[in-house]
Each structure stands twice: as C-alpha cells, then as structure tokens.
Amino acid sequence: MIIGHFAPALIPYHRLQHRVPIAWLLFCSVVNDLLFPILTLLGVESVTPSSPWSASVQNLSIDTTYSHGPFFSLAYAVLLGVVTYLWFRDRRAARWCAGLVILHFLIDLVWGYDHFLWGPNSPLISLGLFNRAPILALSSELIITTAIVAWYIRAEADLKRPLTRVRAVALLALFATGVAFWLTIATRPLGDWLAKLKSYTWNHPQHTQNVVAGVVKQENDHADT
Predict the structure, then answer these.
(1) How many whole angstroms separate alpha carbon 18 and alpha carbon 132?
(2) What digits encode the pLDDT tens for the residues 174-191?
(3) Co-location of 118 and 211 in the same domain
(4) What is 70-108 written as a DSSP string?
(5) 144 plus 45 within the same structural domain
(6) 29, 72, 133, 213: most buried by Cβ count inside 10 Å?
C-alpha cells in the first residue's frame, strides 16, 4: 500500500480515546516509508527508474532491505514501542504503536513490492502485487482504506464524538483522491500523461484556446456580479 498505510493509525487513535496524538500514530504507521527515501539518498537502498516522470507503480524496482525487511521492521517496532511507553507511560499505546509497524510490514507482503528475507539474494517472501497486478493492488487498497475511514467515522459517532459532515467528507476524500492519483500512474508513468497532454494541446490549439477563453469569461462574469 501507499496512501493506505496511513489509515490503520485511525484504529488506535479511536481505541486509545485520543490519548496518543494522531501525528505520532501516523508516524508509526509509515516509519518504514519515511526511512526509505532517506536511505536511498544515502545510497544504502535504491529505486529504478530514479526519475518520477518515467516511473509508474508497475515498473518500479526497489531495494528496501533496511527500511522494510522483516528483521529491521521488527527492530523498528520494538524501538517505537519502547519510545511510546517512555513517552506516554501506557503499555497499551506501546503495543499499538509497535503493532502499526508490524502491520505495515505484513500489508506490504501483499500490497507492495518484492520483499526478501534478508536481501535481494535471499528467498522472496511477498506477492509483489504492485509489480504483478498494480491495478488490482491499488483498487483493493482503495476499498480497504475507505472501509477503515468509514469505520472510524462511525465509531467516533457511537462514542458521541461525531465528526462534522465537512470533516468526514474531507477525510474520505483525502484518502480516496490519494489512492486515485496512484491509480492514474499504475501502469503508465506521469511523464507519458504529460507528454500526451502536451501533444493534444499542440495538435488542437483552437480547442485549448476555447477552453481557456471560457474559463476567463466565467471569471469575468463572476467578477461583474
């Protein structure tokens, strides 16, 4: 998962009665993903293609041995569990935070890239759906993420802490549009879409001018009123 990794943080946020800040729970949920770009910049891990314009979800090849490997994920879980306990003096919160790291690892075994036991030359332990079936992976991520957010909204209402309609819709839209964006580049890089858009505007200049003129006219009419 990508955006979907954030959603599980809503579960302990509700279960712990908001005693632990949502920012910390979100950090625990995605600590592996936060470490990956740092380790990549340091040359410890790698990603190809390196350009975001030529990368799609499907064509990415990544080495996440140290940020996502099973033994390192376990170490991160223990570390964050200890830090959480020392910070909040709450064993239940510590277990939840450690569990979020483990859950991230388990989710990636299905909705993620290839994961190996202890490095690229070791046994493969994941399905790697992002490479093999990216649309299926992202579509199911959208469904699961939406279900978690919907559960959170309902659970908060049951405890007489209902979200406002605006906040509930915004929360659902945030996750849905996040996953939807990745669906657009599931099999085709962003650079291809931009090149196609550029080609269309170049080959249909009159249509483009008409659209722009229409937008300007609407803004002027609105200003006049």
Answers:
(1) 38
(2) 999 999 999 999 999 988
(3) no
(4) HHHHHHHHHHHHHHHHHHH--HHHHHHHHHHHHHHHHHH
(5) yes
(6) 29
